Amino acid sequence: ADAFVSAVEKARGLNAFVIETPEHAIAAAEEADRERAEGKLRPLSGVPLGIKDLFATKGHQTTAGSRMLEGFTPPYESTVSGKLLAAGAGMLGKLNMDEFAMGSSNETSAFGNVISPWRRKDGGNAPLTPGGSSGGSAAAVAARIAPGVTGTDTGGSIRQPAAFTGITGIKPTYGRCSRYGMVAFASSLDQAGPMAQDVRDCAAMLEVMSGFDPKDSTSLDLPVPKWEANLSSDIKGKRIGIPKEYRIDGIPEEIGKVWDQGIEWMRDAGAEIVEVSLPHTQYALPTYYIIAPAEASSNLARYDGVRYGQRRAPDHGSLDDMYNATRAAGFGAEVKRRIMIGTYVLSAGFYDAYFNQAQKVRALIARDFERVWQDCDLLLTPTAPSAAFALGEKSNDPIAMYLNDVFAVPASLAGLPAMSVPAGLDQQGLPLGLQIIGKALDEQGVLNAGLAFE
Ligand code: GLN
Predict the structure, then answer these.
(1) Which of 52, 102, 97 has its CA nearest to residue 401?
(2) Atom of ligand 1 nearest to the CA of 153
(3) Would you call 247 exposed, middle or buried from its count of C-beta atoms within 10 A (0-12, 13-18, 19+)?
(4) Contacts of 408 (CB under 8 A, 6+ apart)
(5) CB distance 191 to ligand 1 below 6 Å
(6) For residue 454, what pLDDT is reported?
(7) Relative to the CA of 104, which ligand 1 atom is closest?
(8) Which of 35, 151, 296, 365 is least buried, going by the fewest C-beta atoms within 10 A?
(9) Which atom in ligand 1 lies closest to the alpha carbon of residue 132?
């Protein structure tokens, strides 16, 4: 019990939790003791987990990193967190995140940025970002505060923070994990997934988190495979595709080095390395930054000061005055930027030029992947174009921030399973990650290839 309390206290220095619930984890550990005595342990009995604050948790405040939802206590549990708790896990707390999961550095959180437990060798003690939007999640695992956490990934938010903090995180195939009770950002992209110390823990958690849910209309009605039991690091004969379009100019040499090293490791492990082409890769980032804000602007229309969370109602004002005051005070700058972009690209005069066009390009990007599976079984790429950057370094430059998602968004647009595994350190001693992308529903292939790196 003391361990759980001291773990959440340690997390305060990193600002990893928005709310702390060690008593919940303690109760789960006590329950696990009883189950052990009776020989009736569940898959995650007594395991203390952190839950990203995007998941609605019954009776516990859920903010999605936004002032707008401050004080909002859901009367229901998200499917994913409910499954983890039903498997015996205890909740240490709700993890800090970028506001409504919009960001790559955790700096858009209304509750302050998260600090990575890592430091650059030459950087003095300058604090670094843990990545985002699941930055609290990544920091908690990297600092050994929680053995596993939930993340969500719309355009890289599990994989990029995992890479920045030297941990493992997998975004499953779109539809594997129910979105019920997950605060919506861009519904056609949002997926939950686990982040943990290694592939095995991710496999065990993902197995619990996945499964058909009639409460999510895009949930896949398929049985959940036994990923953990079927883990195998044997990748002999697997064809690993290296997409040439991911060799982009202007990224640090060390990213390319770690990638080449990963290719060599896989070759040594008996895999066949093939150069492949995904010709529409360069359009993925602009496509994502049209579709995601468009869906966000629609999803976030629900925050009207009536149904959820905060309300600002000026005296003697109209209904519109209340909407305006509530949304002006409740949303941060990045969220407002996305709502404006999204509203613009969906507006009558611009719909065909932007949103509709982006939907077509999205289909082309998905088709690139469908074709590439004729030549290979999995793809290996860097997770992010840089190591963790300093807090403040990109926070006033949205384009630089968006560019950090360049390798993550194609798999998101195509709905494919993708995982980041730690692949070494750069010269500053900071972790770099490699990304393994698989065919739809081939989480097993992705996990197994990841295991080959451990
Ligand atoms: N960084 C991306 C964005 O800001 C992805 C975020 C995410 O995956 N939730 O949209």
Answers:
(1) 102
(2) 8
(3) middle
(4) 153, 155, 156, 159, 160, 383, 384, 418, 435
(5) no
(6) 94
(7) 1
(8) 35
(9) 1
pLDDT at position 125 is 84
For the Cβ of 165 lying below 6 angstroms from any atom of ligand 1, the answer is no
Measured from the CB, is residue 153 less than 6 Å from ligand 1?
yes
How buried is residue 357: exposed, middle or buried, by Cβ count under 10 Å (0-12/13-18/19+)?
middle
Instruction: Tell me the C-alpha distance between 176 and 69, whole Å.
Output: 27
Mean pLDDT value of segment 19-48? 97
Helix ranges (H only) for 71-152 are 79-86, 135-142
Q: Rounded to an integer, what distance in angstroms lies between the CA atom of residue 219 and that of residue 174? A: 8
Atom in ligand 1 nearest the alpha carbon of residue 103 = 4
Q: Does ligand 1 have an atom closer than 6 angstroms to the CB of 107? A: no
Q: Would the CB of 166 count as within 6 Å of ligand 1?
A: no
Comparing CA positions, the residue from 350, 352, 330 lying closest to residue 341 is: 350
pLDDT, tens digit (0-9, with 9 covering 90-100), for 209-238:
999 999 999 999 999 999 999 999 999 999
Q: Is the pLDDT assigned to residue 1 strictly greater than 80? A: no
Which pLDDT belongs to residue 295?
Answer: 98
Alpha helices in 269-419 (DSSP H): 284-299, 319-330, 333-346, 357-372, 398-403, 409-414
Instruction: Kindly report, residue by residue over 300-323, the tens digit of the pLDDT.
Output: 999 999 988 899 988 999 999 999
pLDDT of residue 314: 86
- Report CA(117)–ligand 1 centroid distance (Å): 21
By annotation, the residues acting in catalysis are 52, 133, 157
- Give me the residues paired with residue 272 across strands: 239
- What is the distance between the alpha carbons of residues 393 and 128, in angstroms, rounded to a whole number? 9
CA of 103 to the centre of ligand 1 (A): 5
Which residues are CB-neighbours of 182 under 8 A, at least 6 positions away? 54, 55, 56, 78, 80, 152, 190, 192
Nearest CA to ligand 1 atom 5: 155
Q: How far apart are CA 191 and CA 419, in angstroms?
A: 13
442, 446, 448, 453: CA torsion to nearest 10: 170
Measured from the CB, is residue 113 less than 6 Å from ligand 1? Answer: no
The percent of residues in the chain predicted with pLDDT above 90, rounded, is: 95
Q: Is 62 in the pocket of ligand 1 (CB under 6 A)?
A: no
